[in-house]
Write a structure and sequence with these properties.
The complex is a heterodimer of chains A (429) and B (277).
Chain A: H1 2-29, E1 35-40, H2 42-46, H3 57-63, E2 66-71, H4 74-85, E3 94-98, H5 104-107, H6 114-119, H7 130-135, E4 137-138, E5 141-142, E6 145-157, H8 158-163, H9 173-182, E7 185-186, E8 192-197, H10 204-211, H11 228-243, H12 256-265, E9 268-274, H13 278-281, E10 293-296, E11 314-320, H14 328-338, H15 341-349, H16 357-361, H17 371-380, H18 391-406, H19 412-428
Parallel strand pairs in A: 1-2, 1-3, 8-9
Antiparallel strand pairs in A: 3-11, 4-5, 6-9, 6-10, 6-11, 7-8
Helix pairs in contact in A: 10-11, 11-19, 18-19
Chain B: H1 2-35, H2 55-63, H3 65-98, H4 102-116, H5 119-132, H6 139-163, H7 167-175, H8 180-191, H9 193-209, H10 212-217, H11 225-232, H12 241-261, H13 263-271
Helix pairs in contact in B: 1-12, 2-12, 3-6, 3-9, 3-11, 4-6, 6-9, 7-8, 9-13, 11-12
Classes of the chains: A alpha/beta (429), B mainly alpha (277).
């Protein structure tokens, strides 16, 4: 019996091994002669289309090149990109980098692109939002070309607002807090509704609340808490929301994906998410309120309304060339093509946040219900905080203090003072 | 007395039910969610009665072809790692069972130390080396790594199984003119087949589900299914939970069936040597 088992096992193992070897060999035989290896998130590949809709079709035939995509989720992607760039050489020709990562040390691992831009310029480069270009510039050197942005907006469930007799979304932060309170109820469908759902592990949200009062966490000049009173006011609003139940009791464990599902299920009336999530929130296969979830600019406080614009948060992706990569001219040609006006528009139609101002004006964008508001918000938007070596630790300290304040475990004033004391040394380092 | 027995019986039944619910609920939730319409997956209150749909599986097939490539890679790598681990463990187990020396005894400690090292400690320093020798993003690198981490446990298991095979059989074969390799191949291996299968179960389950090594050492050609699933939990464009649960179900079924079929060998592996007197 045992012998029989063994023989069977051995044969099947040998068969599998031979099959595996054949598969490996087949994989190699299909490899193209000239291949551009790109390291990105899957969404960056998807928006460029496939088959007849492949936006790179002409570029590939003109350059006799194929594009091989290696995709990871955001954080693993950045880890891999930096690890590849730290080697003596890498097979990856182009990488996608998010704009809160390029510190001086990281920027040094990538090719400065100014010379390429001068020698073989990108079509109407000035059309690309200057704020996004700035995010990819370190010590005066351009290291990445912006390709995608995600700008935060305020989403609301119009059906729930109507159910509570609210005819229009808020125009000030105070109105938002008031409406969120009113929208904390049990809906006609019997679903308990929270006025507002926010993830507690992202700095984006408390920073947005602080900015609504003219404050910030760390601004572009690396000033820590440039207006501490504004941060206190922002956190006080969040704390009050939690105390009154407008922020759910599960706030401390709420994640970004919960925001989407809560809004889709009618469990929350408001949330803050990138405008790009509009389609997903209204997807009739996933959402119980397709067509009823709308988006507006996150409102500024009543005191500042009309005096200064609200500066929402934007996260942008740029294409970079690792300094240790091969065939950098081909990499630049790829970047040039993806940055062209037609490719930017094509990607926008496929759900990409366009980095060119002109793209929003294109008639093809009129079918996107949030394009106009997104374009307006983008004008004044900037990153949550600038990149610096200790940014991750600074963010985690910031979030720890914010949570203590919102959950009522620490006085708001005390938490803000703690942020200043604890983050300052990291910023100096 | 009777009441006490009844109470103990009820207590045991409750404990068994609790353990079953604890273990099976996540699996049941994933499989059920993969068959639910998207709107119903996170419905409040939860919907246990629903019209099943295969739409998520269709979307998985149409939109995530790379997942099925990942499954093929996982299969190749798992098979390769299992062959390497079994071959090395059986040979080493035979040596530890039949031979004795100071060096051999000391090397047992080395086997234990290997098991104690957290994989991440060796993973990152290996990255530039693997890259330099051109093995990055190949199946072979994962096969070798997975096998390496299981050879120590496999060796100990195989030694225990081979210890139970009477040495007289080796001696009889020797008298008939068999060399060491022949004894190992013709006498030991067939009789230790249950042990080999027990080791195979451990390696297969580990290799099929492993994420860290696959994440560090693969990119496109050797990308495994767990890596593709991790991409589905995308933070940029949102999660399509139905498709994610469909992929998780597809990923789960082969290893679940394998473990169910090999269950008795797994138990044999876990209890090997327990009654050795």
């Amino acid at each position: 019996m045992s012998d029989k088992l063994l023989n069977l096992t051995r044969r099947s193992f040998l068969g599998t091994a031979m099959g595996g070897a054949a598969a490996l060999a087949a994989g190699q035989s299909f490899a193209a002669g000239k291949t551009l290896n790109v390291l990105s998130h899957k969404v960056h590949q998807t928006v460029l289309g496939t088959g007849d809709g492949d936006l790179l079709k002409d570029w590939k035939s003109a350059n006799d090149a194929d594009v091989s995509w290696t995709t990871f989720d955001s954080n693993p992607l950045q880890d891999r990109l930096f690890r590849e760039a730290s080697l003596s050489s890498t097979d990856f020709n182009v990488g996608y980098m998010v704009d809160n990562r390029p510190t001086k040390q990281i920027a040094a691992m990538f090719e400065p692109l100014d010379a390429y831009l001068q020698k073989d310029g990108i079509e109407d480069f000035e059309d690309i939002a200057p704020g996004l270009v700035q995010g990819m510039t370190v010590d005066g050197k351009l290291i990445g070309i912006p390709v995608r942005h995600a700008t935060q907006g305020l989403f609301y469930n119009e059906a729930l607002l109507e159910e509570q007799g609210i005819s229009a979304p808020p125009t000030t932060l105070e109105e938002l807090a008031e409406q969120a309170q009113k929208l904390t109820f049990t809906s006609k469908a019997g679903t308990p509704v929270a006025g507002m759902v926010l993830a507690s592990d992202l700095a984006v949200f408390p920073v947005m609340f602080a900015r609504a009062f003219g404050g910030d966490f760390i601004n572009a000049k690396f000033e820590l808490l440039p207006n501490p009173e504004a941060m206190e006011k922002g956190l006080s609003v969040l704390r009050k929301m939690f105390e009154t139940g407008a922020l759910p009791r599960s706030y401390a464990t709420t994640k970004n994906d919960d925001q989407v599902t809560w809004l889709q299920q009618g469990r929350a009336a408001f949330t803050v998410l990138p405008f790009a999530r509009f389609a997903q929130l209204n997807n009739k296969e996933q959402s119980k309120f397709p067509g009823k979830i709308k988006a507006i600019e996150f409102p500024i406080s009543a005191d500042l309304k009309g005096k200064m614009p609200m500066s929402s948060i934007v996260e942008a992706w740029g294409m970079v060339i690792p300094a240790n990569s091969k065939d950098k001219d081909l990499s630049w040609k790829f970047i040039k093509e993806v940055s062209s006006k037609s490719a930017t528009l094509g990607m926008a139609k496929n759900g990409n946040g366009p980095v060119r101002v002109s793209t929003y004006a294109d008639p093809a964008m009129s079918s996107n219900p949030v394009a106009a508001v997104e374009a307006a918000v983008l004008k004044n938007a900037r990153g949550a905080f600038p990149p610096f070596p200790e940014a991750a630790r600074a963010q985690s300290i910031f979030l720890e203090e914010v949570q203590l304040a919102v959950l009522g475990r620490k006085e708001v004033k005390e938490a803000v003072a703690s942020i200043a004391t604890r983050v300052k040394p990291l910023l100096q380092a | 007395m009777r009441t006490k027995k009844l109470a103990i019986g009820i207590g045991k039944a409750i404990a068994v039910v609790a353990i079953l619910v604890w273990s099976l609920f996540p699996i049941g939730f994933i499989v059920m969610s993969s068959l639910k319409p998207g709107q119903d997956i996170f419905a409040v209150p939860p919907k246990f009665v629903f019209s099943p749909t295969l739409q998520h599986y269709v979307q998985l097939w149409n939109g995530w072809g790379v997942f099925f490539g990942g499954l093929l890679n996982s299969t190749i790598i798992t098979a390769g790692a299992t062959i390497i681990a079994i071959t090395a463990s059986t040979a080493a187990g035979y040596v530890y069972s039949r031979y004795s020396s100071r060096m051999l005894n000391a090397s047992v400690m080395f086997l234990i130390i290997v098991r104690l090292i957290p994989p991440i400690v060796v993973t990152l320093p290996l990255f530039p080396i693997i890259n330099a020798i051109g093995l990055n993003d190949t199946h072979i690198v994962l096969m070798v790594l997975y096998a390496t981490f299981f050879v120590s446990l496999g060796t100990v298991l195989m030694r225990t199984f081979i210890d139970q095979i009477p040495r007289e059989l080796d001696e009889a074969a020797q008298i008939d003119g068999a060399g060491r390799m022949t004894i190992l191949r013709r006498v030991i291996v067939p009789l230790a087949a249950p042990g080999i299968l027990a080791v195979a179960v451990f390696v297969v389950v580990f290799a099929w589900n492993e994420f860290l090594f696959a994440f560090i050492f693969t990119g496109t050609n050797a990308k495994t299914a767990p890596l593709v699933i991790s991409e589905m939990i995308g933070s940029i464009d949102g999660v399509d939970w139905g498709v994610l649960f469909a992929a998780s179900t597809v990923q789960l079924i082969p290893v679940l069936l394998f473990v169910i079929f090999m269950n008795r060998y797994l138990v044999a592996g876990l209890t090997a040597g327990a009654t050795k007197g």
